[in-house]
Design a protein that fits this description.
Elements lengths: L5 H7 L6 E3 L2 E3 L6 E5 L6 E6 L3 H16 L8 H17 L1 H12 L3 H23 L5 E3 L5 E9 L2 E5 L5 H14 L3 E5 L6 H13 L6 E3 L4 H10 L5 E5 L2 H13 L4 E5 L5 E4 L6 H13 L11 E5 L3 H13 L19 H16 L3 E4 L3 E2 L7 E2 L2 E4 L6 H4 L6 E7 L1 H10 L3 E2 L1 E5 L3 H10 L4 E4 L14 E2 L16 E9 L2
Parallel strand pairs: 7-8, 7-10, 8-9, 10-11, 12-13, 12-20, 13-18, 17-18, 20-21
Antiparallel strand pairs: 1-2, 3-4, 5-6, 6-23, 14-17, 15-16, 19-22
């Protein structure tokens, strides 16, 4: 099969630009738009509807009406399953279009969008659809004169606010279980990467999801996200993004109607490498991939590399060599190991952290600069700092870019102490051939996911979420359904 000519397809692509409310693509009520700029080369992709409070009201009213009349919520789980399976099939059929939109909008390599993001999004929809009619209620243990039933019911109207780094995948992590359990949804994608969410809404209608059940509001956090979070007729609020925004949204939930609120927030994940790792070379490659994949714009990025001092010099040299092979290239190049930062603002933010690392005395071993400036896009070299102290800014704050902080340690207890010395708790990695040590570390690491002898494991069967200020609730797996349902106890007198 001839590989796609991505550059030609990009030139001929017409991206979606309107909001999606009550089953139709519509302009914002104000008529306002914002420029959707490609980080690949700085060119204007389209002008997207900039939604505000009036659009939020229209979308929530539409979602509420759809929920209350039962056009979706009253369907059986098996009926909803079939529609969601059709949506997954349509996403698979349009995988190249979705991947191209993702790359042009967000800057990630087309190989990652097509080979990782879109397939994972399809799997999420199909897995969730297949699971929903396998979820049973409970019967309480009672005496012979009573019957106690424990059932799950949909919350109602869900507001989902999702980030820009994995625009399609993060959207379906929320949408699939919310829709499968019978809710209506108002989705607010990031203004930095709204295009795949808008296209997904069109495919949802084609799949048979009724009008009003899924609404998509592109726009900014202050003008669209906050009114949605404060809306008194929204029953559930789910979010993936920064811890600062997550805290603000929790406040919105409290100030409004105490809507159920679940936040998947930031991370500063430790990747702990002991001297007895099964393969230092394999661990080094994983350490580089763990921070430079998706340009480091990953909540679970392996941004803190903790290395036992007896092998640190040798190991860091391997990581630097691996990093040199991961220089950014044009994201439409099928062999690009890294692409562009999502926009100029994020690029400047990351470069600012790199300057702080230099100023605070960390040793720059690789990168540290903007690159490919002639393209007009926003690219940063893979960057590695050695001799980082745990109290340094680059070791404590989430950078969300291709910046690795290397910290040395001696022994299990010191490694564990440094690993847990963070306000975050999203993920962690441990490299050792000692199975007892691996289990001890996994039990004591305060993180929602712990990976042993690799990085970024798991699939749709495993829950995903964090401890501490990395948030609450879980995406993926059967546990995701818990966020979108209420438990009801029904007692029947049989006497």
């Amino acid at each position: 099969m001839t590989p796609p000519d991505w550059h030609t397809r990009a030139a001929n692509l017409t991206p979606p630009r309107q909001a999606f409310i009550d089953g139709k693509a519509v302009d914002a009520a104000s008529g306002e738009t914002f420029d959707c700029i490609s980080p690949v080369d700085g060119r204007l992709l389209t002008r997207v509807a900039s939604c505000g409070a009036e659009d939020v009201e229209r979308a929530v009213v539409s979602a509420r009406r759809a929920f209350e009349d039962g056009r979706w919520s009253a369907r059986t789980p098996t009926q909803r399953k079939r529609v969601l399976q059709k949506l997954g099939e349509l996403m698979q059929q349009h995988r190249e279009e979705l991947a191209l939109l993702e790359t042009l909008d967000m800057g990630k390599p087309i190989a990652d969008a097509l080979g990782i993001d879109v397939p994972a999004s399809v799997r999420c929809v199909l897995w969730t659809a297949e699971a929903i009619d396998k979820v049973y209620g409970e019967v309480a243990p009672t005496g012979p004169d009573e019957l106690g039933l424990i059932t799950r019911e949909p919350l109602g109207v869900i507001a989902a606010i999702v980030p820009w780094n994995f625009p399609l995948l993060m959207a379906v992590w929320k949408l699939a279980p919310a829709l499968a359990t019978g809710n209506s949804v108002v989705l607010k994608p990031s203004e930095k990467s709204p295009l795949t969410a808008l296209r997904l809404a069109e495919l949802a209608i084609e799949a048979g999801i009724p009008a009003g059940v899924l609404n998509v509001l592109p726009g900014f956090g202050k003008t669209a996200g906050e009114p949605l979070a404060l809306h008194m007729d929204v029953d559930g609020l789910v979010f993936t993004g920064s811890t600062a925004v997550g805290k603000h949204l929790l406040g919105c939930a409290a100030r409004s109607n105490m809507k159920r609120a679940y936040m998947e927030c930031g991370g500063k994940s430790p990747n702990v490498v002991f001297a007895d790792a099964p393969s230092l070379q394999q661990a080094a490659q994983a350490a580089a991939s763990g921070i430079f994949f998706n340009q480091g714009e990953v909540c679970t990025a392996a941004s803190r590399l903790l290395v036992e001092r007896s092998v640190k010099d040798e190991f860091v040299a391997m990581v630097v060599a691996a990093g040199r092979r991961m220089q950014p290239r044009h994201p439409l190049d099928p062999d690009a190991p890294m692409g562009a930062m999502v926009d100029e603002v994020q690029m400047r933010r990351v470069l600012g952290y790199i300057e702080q690392g230099r100023a605070q005395g960390a040793q720059l071993r690789l990168g540290g600069s903007r690159t490919l400036t002639e393209t007009g896009g926003y690219y940063i070299e893979p960057t590695i700092f050695d001799d980082v102290q745990p109290q340094m800014t680059i070791a404590r704050e989430e950078i969300f870019g291709p910046v690795l902080s290397v910290i040395g340690f001696d022994g299990e207890e010191e490694g564990l102490r440094i690993a847990n010395d963070t306000p975050y708790g999203l993920a962690a990695g441990v490299w050792t051939r000692d199975i007892s040590k691996a289990h001890r570390m996994a039990r004591r690491l305060r993180a929602g996911s712990v990976w042993v002898n690799y990085w970024d494991g798991g699939d749709m069967t495993a829950p995903f979420g964090g401890y501490k200020q990395s948030g609450n609730g879980r995406d993926k797996s059967l546990h995701a359904f818990e966020k979108y349902t209420e438990l009801k106890a029904t007692w029947v007198n049989l006497g």
